[in-house]
Amino acid sequence: MKGNPITASMIPSIFTLANLLCGFLALVLVIQGAYTIAAGLILVSVLMDSLDGKVARRLSVSSDFGKELDSLSDLVSFGVAPAILTYQAILHPLQPEYVRYMGLGIAAIFALCGAVRLARFNMLNITTHFVGVPITFAGGIIALLMFFRTMLPWYIYPVSMAFLAFLMVSTFKVPKLGK
Prior knowledge:
Elements: H1 11-32, H2 35-59, H3 64-91, H4 97-124, E1 129-131, H5 135-146, H6 156-169, E2 173-175
Antiparallel strand pairs: 1-2
Helix pairs in contact: 1-2, 1-3, 2-3, 2-5, 3-4, 3-5, 4-6, 5-6
């Protein structure tokens, strides 16, 4: 075999794809009812997401491709997966039926606000701070709350999702940590 099959520019994308894989597997585990493991995989995605950026900066190989791949992965891992996890584990079993549908709406709004937040992040190119709460934080908090689902009342989850959805699309300046 000639040359190195993995170049330095590919290494951050490996972490990004690991983030996406964990988000995908979390969705599969939600379907199977393994909610705690799914929440754990979303938290592993948080770790992979923090590593891809650090590695890209360290190797000086940041790219537009990497930025787009990261946003697509983040939408799955921190928008869609936590929303579906919360809906399926907490909100779907609720009665009466209209409460269940409200929960579905809040879960959808969470994922949609995450998509808007990521699109805005990609357009702004601000390096000093975030505008709105990062989707990684919002999805990570929702996943973390899943570990306490037997101790917390059900209404904590839709309220938290609605509040975090608002914070993601807000114009609050959030400092960038660890850069």
